[in-house]
Specification:
The structure is a single chain. The chain is α/β, with parallel strands linked by helices and 509 residues long. It folds into three domains: 77 residues, Archaeosine Trna-guanine Transglycosylase, Chain: A, domain 4 (Roll), CATH 2.30.130.110; 130 residues, Ribose 5-phosphate Isomerase B, Chain: A (3-Layer(aba) Sandwich), CATH 3.40.1400; 230 residues. The chain is 31% helix and 19% strand. It is built from 15 helices and 23 strands. The strands form six sheets. A seven-stranded parallel beta sheet has the order 19-20-18-17-21-22-23, with helices on both faces. The protein has a four-stranded antiparallel beta sheet with strand order 1-2-5-8, with no helix packed on it. Strands 13-12-14-15 form a four-stranded parallel beta sheet, with helices on both faces. Helix 2 crosses helix 11. The chain is globular.
Length: 509
């Protein structure tokens, strides 16, 4: 970075703070040399550009991110030591900013090379799944996966791999509980996912989440690509492993008989995630991903925004873009549910950011949420879904998930996401099977340190070398190339076998 570039970034004319582009020391001049630092300001952190009296709002992105807990002078750092949260009203104004979706010229013709399934759904990968109904069948699921893996490599080149999607639940909860409903929706979403060419569901036999119960409640039935077993009626571990390998062996030739073909970009369901965020995430990676989302929506595709606790404080920016009044109301109902849910657990929905977020310059959940919502671009919000519900609408949608990245992504994949874009500022290493994950770095320093894990460096926006729009176009092209089969960094590393994390909610009895 050359020395003639500004030391700070102003995001909105109304802001009373700016963001340090580089580390700044006391005495450093900034803001056209009109202001002087009074404190050390780490890169990504905030510095006041005018006096802020105690109790007055801290403004960033043109929005309130907190309130001064003490008087703050120009040039002082603005962070957790002098910022507090308190309740304040946010004008939801449902639908007031809704407008027709827009895309780039010619984006309607965008396409990728996908795998068209017999039911018309389109896959971006071709895996085999071993899907346990309960943790008690997890070991057997892994044994079957291990037994199949060698044959895949030697005989079936069009199958990307086999994954045992083990998890920690499936029993010791009421049979009519919300937690069991969520687990069954999640398992069913994976069982139906087009990125699986063959699926074997494995139960123990005495669990609450019985195979027959799962199949009946979720409208699943055995067919050419979906088979079931339970350990107790099959005769134990060895017999179940042998039978499971044999069942999958019969499905493999058909699963391997696939060929990619050109399909419109409208078949992409893009899951949007941010994790290990820093203050640059909301300035570079998230807005650039939002620009790519606008191009995808303009091409007839779908993008799924998630993580309800991490849009808290910015939900009004989404309700204002709601295509229909009921969409905005659905989102607000999920916010209210989370407020009650966290209160029951003697916590709070604003009990965030994480230590890593704070070290990266994020002070409050409001600040984090405003940056996170930038992933959603600028088009209308067309629907709100419960966790792991099948996503059927085209355009920008929201899914209610926790902020915990693996659980959030698991829900979106269960909903049908066939590509994931994951923005990170601190450097999260992550991937999920059976869906490819593109990692977008928010700053160049982290990108250079973790280049083996990152797919796109959005830090060039902070460096002043590329625009948000230019990075959005680059990300959109990479989404299409990834959907066409190009492996991401996380796929090259082999991530995805341990990242299946259904949202666990409710008591374990």
């Amino acid at each position: 970075m050359t020395s003639d570039k500004p030391k700070t970034i102003r995001l909105h004319p109304d802001d009373n703070v700016v963001v340090a582009r580089v580390d700044m020391a006391p005495g450093d001049r900034f803001g056209n040399q009109d202001l002087c630092c009074k404190d050390p300001i780490p890169a990504g952190h905030k510095v006041a550009v005018r006096a802020i009296s105690a109790g007055r709002a801290i403004i960033k992105y043109g929005q309130i991110i907190g309130f001064a807990s003490v008087a703050i002078q120009p040039g002082e750092q603005v962070h957790t030591h002098n910022v507090a949260l308190k309740d304040f009203s946010r004008e939801t104004a449902i639908g007031c900013d809704a407008a027709p979706a827009r895309g780039a010229v010619g984006s309607q013709t965008a396409s990728f090379s996908g795998i068209v399934r017999p039911d018309g759904t389109v896959a971006t990968r071709n895996y085999v799944a071993i899907l346990p109904t309960v943790n008690c069948s997890a070991g057997v699921a892994r044994f079957i996966a291990d037994g199949v893996a060698g044959e895949l490599r030697s005989r079936y080149p069009n199958i990307d791999g086999v994954v045992a999607l083990v998890h920690q639940s499936g029993c010791c909860s009421p049979g009519d509980s919300e937690g069991l409903q969520i687990l069954q929706r999640t398992l069913a979403g994976y069982a139906r996912h087009p990125n699986f060419g063959a699926v074997l569901v494995i139960g123990l036999g005495c669990e609450v989440n019985q195979v027959e119960c799962l199949m009946a409640n979720m409208g699943l039935a055995e067919n050419q690509r979906l088979k079931t077993l339970d350990i107790q009626s099959t005769g134990g571990t060895r017999a179940t492993v042998e039978k499971g390998i044999a069942l999958i062996g019969k499905m493999l030739p058909e699963a391997d008989r696939v060929q990619r073909q050109p399909v419109p970009a409208s078949h992409i369901l893009l899951g949007l995630e941010c994790g290990g965020s820093d203050a640059y995430s909301g300035i570079s990676a998230n807005p650039a991903l939002g620009a790519a989302v606008d191009l995808l929506v303009g091409s007839g595709g779908t993008a799924i925004l998630s993580e309800t606790p991490e849009i808290y404080g910015a939900e009004h920016l989404l309700t204002r873009r709601s295509e229909r009044p009921e969409v905005g109301e659905k989102l607000l109902r999920r916010i209210r549910w989370w407020e009650k849910h966290t209160a029951r657990l003697e916590s709070a929905i604003d009990n965030n950011p994480t230590p890593g977020n704070k070290a990266g310059g994020i002070t409050t959940i409001m600040e984090k949420s405003l940056g996170a919502v930038a992933k959603a671009g600028s088009t209308n919000l067309v629907e709100v879904y419960q966790y792991a519900e099948p996503v059927t609408e085209k355009g920008l949608v929201f899914m209610d998930t926790p902020g915990y990245d693996p659980a959030s992504v698991t829900g979106m994949v269960a909903g049908g996401a066939n590509v994931i874009c994951f923005t990170t500022g601190r450097g999260t290493v992550y991937g999920v099977k059976p869906v490819p994950t593109l990692k977008l770095a928010s700053n160049s320093s982290m990108y250079r340190r973790l280049a083996d894990d990152m797919d796109v460096n959005c830090g060039v926006i902070i460096d002043g070398d590329r625009s948000v729009e230019e990075l959005g176009e680059l990300i959109f092209r990479q989404i299409l190339e990834t959907a066409s089969g190009r492996k991401t960094r996380s796929e090259q590393h082999g991530f995805g076998d341990c990242e299946f994390v259904p949202w666990h909610i409710g008591a374990i009895l």
